[in-house]
């Protein structure tokens, strides 16, 4: 009995000391989608300019992590459901604001309606496209945005199906996300075949993390990204992929065995 009392007393005496020890940052489970040149596979390693920014943030903060490339819906759901989950590159919308803690912006872009170069479109505003079939990437922010406003969307399981559908006249327009000055049309051989018709939104994207991740971890990651922007690292990582050319995706990248983006 005396030994038991001494053991309990010892544990109680040590409790404040344990409570005062610094907490080990959680190991983050980070997900993304196949979206070259921002994120894609090189063998079994996820690369791309967005991916390299995330890896640099993790390196500067000494946070352990893993990155998985998944179909967008699975990548997004993992971050919502897993207490150690984060997903990039996630558009920050009012509907998503309270679902995550945010690191970024890591990049910015435009939502653009792309059309066939040999077709005369008369689009001054997004409303002018209401009668047209718009190809989207199933479950992403553009798809949600257009659906919620009653537009005729034709979703694809992977975004790289949409330019093919457009050139085959299966859709009238393709709702794509492009970085300002992007050479994606030229790099993929679509110049002269597919052209921008209307910019209908300007957005910023983030690393979106589950709300269970401690605030000090989020603050450290944001501070690291701000330092990267100041010292030119972010731009240097982007420039590495300025001339990147899309190749045929692997089955793992395609997710469902069909071409992806």
UniProtKB/TrEMBL annotation:
Gene3D superfamilies: Periplasmic binding protein-like II. InterPro entries: Solute-binding_3/MltF_N. Pfam families: SBP_bac_3 (PF00497). Transmembrane segments: none annotated. It comes from the Bacteria. Residues 32-241 form the Solute-binding protein family 3/N-terminal domain. The keyword Lyase does not apply. Keywords: Signal. Residues 1-19 form the signal peptide. PANTHER family: PERIPLASMIC SUBSTRATE BINDING PROTEIN FAMILY 3 (PTHR38834), SOLUTE-BINDING PROTEIN FAMILY 3_N-TERMINAL DOMAIN-CONTAINING PROTEIN (PTHR38834:SF3). This is ABC transporter substrate-binding protein.
């Amino acid at each position: 009995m005396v030994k038991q009392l001494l053991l309990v007393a010892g544990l109680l005496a040590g409790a404040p000391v344990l409570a005062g020890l610094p907490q080990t940052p959680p190991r983050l489970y980070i997900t993304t989608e196949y979206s070259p040149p921002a994120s894609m596979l090189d063998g079994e390693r996820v690369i791309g300019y967005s991916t390299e920014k995330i890896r640099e943030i993790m390196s500067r903060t000494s946070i352990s992590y893993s990155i998985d490339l998944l179909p967008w819906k699975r990548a997004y759901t993992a971050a919502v459901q897993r207490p150690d989950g984060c997903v990039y590159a996630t558009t920050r919308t009012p509907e998503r604001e309270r679902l995550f803690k945010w690191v970024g912006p890591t990049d910015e872009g435009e939502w653009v309606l792309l059309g066939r170069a040999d077709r005369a479109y008369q689009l001054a505003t997004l409303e002018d496209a209401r009668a047209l079939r718009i190809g989207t990437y199933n479950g992403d922010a553009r798809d949600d945005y257009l659906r919620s406003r009653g537009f005729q969307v034709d979703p694809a399981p992977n975004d790289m199906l949409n330019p093919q559908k457009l050139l085959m006249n299966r859709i009238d327009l393709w709702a794509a996300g492009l970085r300002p000055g992007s050479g994606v049309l030229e790099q993929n051989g679509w110049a002269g075949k597919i052209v921008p018709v209307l910019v209908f939104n300007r957005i910023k994207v983030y690393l979106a993390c589950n709300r269970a991740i401690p605030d000090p971890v989020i603050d450290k990651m944001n501070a690291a990204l701000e330092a990267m922007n100041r010292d030119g690292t972010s731009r240097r990582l982007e420039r590495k992929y300025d001339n990147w050319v899309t190749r045929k995706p692997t089955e793992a990248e395609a997710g469902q065995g069909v071409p992806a983006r």
